[in-house]
Design a protein that fits this description.
The protein has helices at residues 8-29, 32-42, 53-71, 87-108, 112-143, 148-153, 160-163, 165-178, 202-227, 233-253, 259-287, and strands spanning 3-4, 79-80. It is mainly alpha-helical. The two termini are 22 Å apart. Belongs to the complex I subunit 1 family.
Length: 288
């Protein structure tokens, strides 16, 4: 049974997320993230003409806040910072905050390329969000509850990943889109168009990248209670690390996907697949 934990767990949550995010970054690029972070700490902030600094910085902090807010409903063993009857909805609400955050960063820089990156993320969100919501709803349907603790309890005999494999795969893909990472990193800008982070430097860049990695970590961690049966502290750590490692591995194997191709794939393939998966789960629940 998952219950609300003591208040001090909430204070530890950003540190826990940050530690996992740093570990994943080092798995991806060795010691480079530590050197890059040290360099950004002493780097002077770059400013663009007529930039809206308040909007830009608000977007940076909102991205970090989105990751932390998403994580408060993730059970840490048998406790969670927030035990609410609508935990699945809360998680989805928190990660949608990232939409506004990235757009604010891109718009606030007063740079055409940065603004393009912000709008790219909005377009990408329109592609991944519906499959993402169907994956969340499918897990909730299997447990007949929106409470994360009830979803964990429903997997006592059989993990949801066993009979909801499509939902699990689609969920992980949507986590990559949510963190605009790996094959879905066009909003971050590898091409000449740049990205939402194009004009960021110094501490601003460090916080933005940290928020991105923390969002990826929160998404990977939420797969544990949704599809992998939850468990005690040790199991949660192991399963979260395994999900993160799988996402890092995927980045190294799959090139960046063109945004229009991803939108087409999401609407033509992912959404119909998730509708069938949800229908199968609904039939099983009715029969049960």
């Amino acid at each position: 049974m998952v219950e609300a934990g003591p208040w001090w767990i909430g204070l530890l949550l950003p540190a826990i997320l940050g530690a996992f995010a740093l570990g994943a970054a080092m798995l991806d690029a060795g010691s480079y993230p530590l050197k890059a972070a040290a360099g950004l700490l002493i780097q002077q902030r770059r400013k663009t003409l007529a930039a809206d600094i308040l909007l830009l910085r608000a977007g940076i902090f909102a991205l970090v806040a989105a990751a932390v807010l998403a994580a408060v409903v993730i059970p840490l063993g048998e406790v969670a910072v927030l035990d609410t009857g609508v935990g699945v909805v809360w998680f989805n609400m928190a990660e949608v905050l990232a939409w506004a955050a990235v757009w604010m960063v891109g718009w606030g820089a007063n740079s055409a390329y940065a603004m393009v990156g912000g709008y790219r993320f909005v377009a990408q969100g329109l592609a991944y969000e519906l499959p993402h919501m169907f994956a969340l709803i499918t897990a909730a349907l299997g447990a007949e509850s929106l409470r994360v603790g009830d979803i964990v309890e429903a997997q006592r005999d059989l993990w949801f990943v066993v009979w909801m494999p499509a939902a699990f795969v689609v969920y992980l893909l949507s986590v990559l889109g949510m963190a605009f990472w790996g094959p879905f990193d066009q909003p971050a800008g590898r091409d000449i168009g740049g990205g939402a982070r194009l004009e960021l430097s110094g501490v601003d860049r460090l916080l933005f990248e940290g928020g991105r990695w923390m969002l990826l970590t929160a998404g990977a961690a939420f797969a544990v209670p949704l599809f992998l049966g939850g468990g005690g502290w040790g199991w949660v750590i192991v399963k979260t690390a395994a999900a993160l490692a799988a996402l890092v591995w995927l980045k190294k194997r799959v090139p960046t996907v063109r945004l229009n191709r991803y939108v087409e794939f999401a609407w033509i393939v992912l959404i119909p697949v998730m509708l069938v998966q949800a229908l199968v789960v609904a039939v099983v629940v009715l029969v049960r």
